[in-house]
């Protein structure tokens, strides 16, 4: 009893945890039900202050060593490592882990593509031949008079080098604007192959190897670039070829997409193949019949997190919420099954699913959770897994116990703005062209472009910074591109619609109204951040805005980031030439040489640089000031 009171005292009121009304409702319900969620665990688990400053090292057993962030140069580790070495090594390992996640994801998709073009796998196919030809051209693969299958085989073999190549420049170096590539060559940061780069980071950050923070950061850049222009870009391009390049599609978001009288199935994770296959299972006539026989009106398939964002952008599949809502959605009691694959899958889901009788399944050999049932997804027999998930969901529907409470919140928005479609939309009918976009930037109607991306997390109020930051940016005529959990935050705020132009400045509003587009464009999942890179390259190639990505009036932000993947993404944007601002927290000790290197010196080297702010309005104006500085340098500031 005393203990419960103690716990209650520490809990943060639901509306201070999140600005998402549906999630707040479920936080309150969970508390009434005595179920603990991520928000409550965050309140009782104070972040370690030394770790938060990245001032500790446990790379060998002479330590772990803790330095004092208030007096960073007052002490060194047992081996003599300085604060700069320790921070750079910690940062590098975050980059390595994040890049590994995207790389492993991309390599899986590419492997599947290989099986398809070799004729070994008949469950998937080449769906978008246009995209196939376009990727072949980028890679300088001959297309004239050749069968799609053969071209595909060459693409497969060439792109495999993204991962396995040991020497030389990686394949998508061919997609990089010439001057940006020159800068990379000058600093020796053109990736060879992702596996080599990640291995080298792990080696160099071992005790007693690389102890020069600048040299470590160089390898961070090379590794992060092998994610952005490598692992992630391959995942995006190959998924487009196999599943179709997104074009705008209406989709519903938030927990109101759950239907009390339907069998509700959520897929949460990152790889599109599981989701594509479960779509086939849930629309199968015998499954729908079985659901009806169990008393349901039908089967309702819904996404969450990144694979959800990808499927929403590609097919208009409804989306139930971002990372901070994955446990909360189970509190509705309406989720009959949740199937997860990899990344951002909280172990806490297991307990919450148990409490509400949701069938939770892991499906990927890389991601088991103790106590959670595993049904392995095999690409050579995908329906075996996805059919079983659906059958389990139907039987849970039949045996639903306990009350069901689905928040009514639901918003409709437009998603699926691929780099190709942006060119098509602005270029006018039948032509794809970035000329009108560049013209509108040069004439000042559009001040610049911002990518706002990344996670939500419990150390800050869910969705708040995303929404306020993006509103401030469009108000100042900055066109916003979005991916991942950030895109879902804005979609839930009802702003991914053309009518949001009334919140935009006059110039941006005019462009949006003429074209009929929203001022905020949703691109998809985290690996689809590569679409921002290819769009930026297109802007450079089109002309009038300088010669490298670093010249563009553009900036990026991840205001509520939490994952190591976000650090890899942030750093590949920085290495590509983009000023990138993070919020909530940053793993660094201020006033150190390492800090100065990331936040200032990288820009002097011709790359981008890092920034940090905890206030969304300040963050917006840091980005706008940078955009204006670039406009000034281009001589296009009015
Ligand atoms: Ni890959 S990495 S919380 S699901 S955006 Fe969402 Fe996105 Fe961050 Fe994870
Ligand atoms: Fe300490 Fe150096 Fe070992 Fe790190 S590598 S734990 S700083 S002795």
Strand content: 5-15%
Bound molecules: Fe(4)-Ni(1)-S(4) cluster, oxidized, iron/sulfur cluster
Order the strands across the largest sheet as they lie in space: 12-11-10-13-14-15
CATH architecture of the largest domain: 3-Layer(aba) Sandwich
Span from first to last CA? 66 Å
What kind of sheet is the major sheet? 6 strands, parallel
Mean pLDDT rating: 96
Tally of alpha and pi helices: 25
Low-confidence stretches: none
User: Percentage of helical residues?
Assistant: 40-55%
For the CA atoms, what is the radius of gyration? Answer: 24 Å
Tell how many strands the DSSP assignment holds: 15
Structural class: alpha/beta
Can you give a write-up of this model?
Its EC number is 1.2.7.4. This is Carbon monoxide dehydrogenase. The chain has 638 residues and is α/β, with parallel strands linked by helices. It has helices at residues 2-10, 14-17, 21-33, 38-44, 49-52, 83-117, 129-138, 148-164, 178-186, 194-204, 213-243, 272-283, 285-293, 305-315, 349-356, 382-398, 419-427, 435-442, 464-475, 484-492, 506-515, 529-542, 564-576, 593-604, 616-634, and strands at 56-57, 65-66, 249-253, 263-268, 299-304, 337-340, 359-362, 373-374, 411-415, 448-452, 478-483, 520-524, 554-558, 579-582, 610-612. The protein has 3 domains: 83-243, Substrate Binding Domain Of Dnak, Chain:A, Domain 2, CATH 1.20.1270.30; 249-398, Rossmann fold (3-Layer(aba) Sandwich); 421-634, 3-Layer(aba) Sandwich (Rossmann fold), CATH 3.40.50. The protein has a 6-stranded parallel β-sheet with strand order 12-11-10-13-14-15, with helices on both faces. Helix 6 (83-117) crosses helix 23 (564-576). The protein is globular, with a radius of gyration of 24 Å. The model has no long low-confidence stretch (mean pLDDT 96). Bound molecules: Fe(4)-Ni(1)-S(4) cluster, oxidized (CUV) and iron/sulfur cluster (SF4). Fe(4)-Ni(1)-S(4) cluster, oxidized (CUV) binds at residues 270, 305-306, 322-323, 344, 454-455, 484-485, 525-526, 563, 565-566.
